[in-house]
């Protein structure tokens, strides 16, 4: 019954909200689009974290960008998703905690939806969702939601999940010694929970802003009650001048092979913080590795140009830090890079 009420609300809202919300949504998009524009990236607008829970780099919403290097233009489905999603969690404690956590909840919900449609393999996303809204992403309702425009909109979450999962699995298989996985700007990433039971030789660390870590700890406590926590959670603001190594606990060792995962985080960081982060993760020698799925415009990997050139620009970033680029994929004319660096 609840599901049908929610679907009815979605249908009604989808008719009326485009008129009401277009100006607000356009403002959100302009904030995010600044981040994919190749420009002098030291402006404060670029450096600021978006002040609204923009769906764009997170829950399946691509960042707007300049043509020809940019994502598809916003559609009605974008608007409907942006508007209706908050209604689902209007009474959730996770909703009231803070905007970053709420944004992460959208990504989690999206992953659960993609899992229900067998687009990705992430059953943990479903388990971690607050119970009241889980049913919406079970088989039948998810079929109603997962129509053409929604499917298209969410395809970049599928792409990035597949890229990182494949690269991470490959690294983990080749890591017989004790090793470590550090997920940076982890949000509600489910990889620690998915991969740690399969890899008892690896320690998992997840790092994010204090308020996000607080809510993730709540989610873990609820989801894995009586079980070992999938990871060690670390509060750290990447815009601080210190290195992530100062934030990691003594159980982390720079001497062990380490996999760093950075997914959709650099949108929110100013260039000096990105450089600071890259200097740290790239400082560990092979077999340590870094997987990045992000917009790299702020560190000189500007979108645009033919595919070879787009790839070369990303490769050059690794070379600058003495790293070799392995697998690489770019979408939206290089507005997003998916790359592994060894
Ligand atoms: C779009 S979410 C991506 C989350 C996760 N990587 C994923 O793909 O599901 C961006 C994440 O970056 C985190 N973040 C943003 N600014 C940060 C900062 N200054 N320090 C640490 N984390 C930050 C946010 O809290 C959020 O969890």
TrEMBL record:
Signal peptide stretch: 1-18
Keywords attached to this entry: Methyltransferase, Signal, Transferase
Location of the region described as Disordered in the Swiss-Prot/TrEMBL record: 42-72
Domain of life from the UniProt record: Eukaryota
Bias kind Low complexity: ranges: 50-68
GO terms for MF: methyltransferase activity
InterPro entries according to UniProt: Ppm1/Ppm2/Tcmp, SAM-dependent_MTases_sf
A Gene Ontology BP annotation from the UniProt entry: methylation
Annotated protein name in UniProt: S-adenosyl-L-methionine-dependent methyltransferase
Organism expressing this protein natively: Triparma columacea
